[in-house]
Amino acid sequence: MGSLYIQYEYWFSAFQLITAMVGMGATLTPKDFKEIMLEPKAVSSGTAIQILVVPAIAWLFISAFGLAGGVAVGLALIASVPGGSTSNIFTHFARGNIALSVAITAVTTLACLFTTPFILDLLIANYMPAEFVMPKAHIMKEIALTLLLPLALGMLYLKLFPSTAEQFSKWAIRASMFGLLMIVVGASASGRLDLQVFGYFNVFLIVFFILAMGVVSWLISWGLLRLSHADATAVDMEVVVRNINLGLMLKALLFPAVLGQVDPVGDMVLLALLLYGGLQMFVAAALIALRRSTAPANH
Asked: What are the percentages of helix, strand and coil residues in the chain, rounded to 5?
């Protein structure tokens, strides 16, 4: 399994991303984007936190802790990708504004065609080898083909087959989760997931990073902007729950595994992404419990 994973790492990553985005698309209609006009303050603030504040936090971590190599690239990838599709589900359980969550996910997903390569170049260009050139055009092409196109196809499925779209979406998400599981199994079998090599201090950094993003989002959405409970909950969930599926695909693009060759940078990036992906489930669960307990009685 290890050698198979290394040989087809890109396709494992592409499969789990494409199925996730098709599944998400099958839950979206054009009217979901009207939320932008109905609640411009909440949508614009949520989008701004995603595109501006989260990368700024990643930059602070990279600079303050003197990070380089795989850990710096891993944080940059996490910060550059949009919110994940599961954030909408978590927002529902947390009694947040689901329509707002969907709108922010959709907007940041569309915007990432341009923002992701820009943020990556800004955050990690100085930490890469001198001969490395950020493949911006290639990244934009991959995002268009493996993220935006599947999203559009999922929306088309919902339009053409509305009666089966919900079930189709569930199976697509399950397929994506299976693909993600295969990445974990394959990477483990190939010896590329080693916490001791990654370093327990770096594990702490990833934990601290996700907590810092949650706290900063809370300070802005609840304290500074004074959004409603439902709106602030949706924004916070969008910030914490990242599209790690896209991050894994970009890792496979930028640092492809090669059979018989050790890639300490790529392995560190992979582990950083998978570690964050697991941690965000626990943080989201904690947010759900907290927000349900503090939600207005008439919600």
From this structure: 80, 0, 20
Compute the half-sphere exposure of residue 108: CA atoms within 13 Å on the CB side of its CA.
Answer: 32
How far is residue 107's CA from residue 239's CA, in Å, rounded to a whole number? 13
**Residues 6+ away with beta carbon under 8 Å from 96:** 229, 230, 231, 232, 233, 234, 237, 291
H or E segment and range at residue 84 = none
Cβ distance 99 to 235 under 8 Å?
A: no
Q: Report whether pLDDT(104) > 80.
A: yes
Task: Work out whether the CA dihedral 287, 289, 291, 294 comes out positive or negative.
Answer: negative
Q: Is 243 helix (H, G, I), strand (E, B) or coil?
A: coil
Phi, psi of 194 (to 5 degrees): -135, 105
Token pair for residue 273? 């992404």
Question: What is the tens place of the pLDDT at every residue in 20-51?
Answer: 889 888 887 877 666 566 667 888 888 999 99
Please give the average per-residue pLDDT across 132-159, as a whole number: 84
**Cβ neighbour number for residue 210 with a 10 Å cutoff:** 22
Three-state secondary structure readout of 37-75: HHCHHHHHHHHHHHHHHHHHHHHHHHHHCCCCHHHHHHH
For the domain with range 2-294, which CATH number is right: 1.50.10.10, 1.10.3210.10, 3.40.190.10, 1.20.1530.20? 1.20.1530.20
pLDDT higher than threshold 60 for residue 274 = yes
- Residue 230 exposure: Cα atoms within 13 Å on the Cβ side: 11
Query: How far, in Å, are 72, 123, 197, 207 from residue 201 at the CA level?
Result: 13, 21, 11, 10
Q: Convert the pLDDT of each residue in 66-80 to its tens digit.
A: 888 889 999 999 999
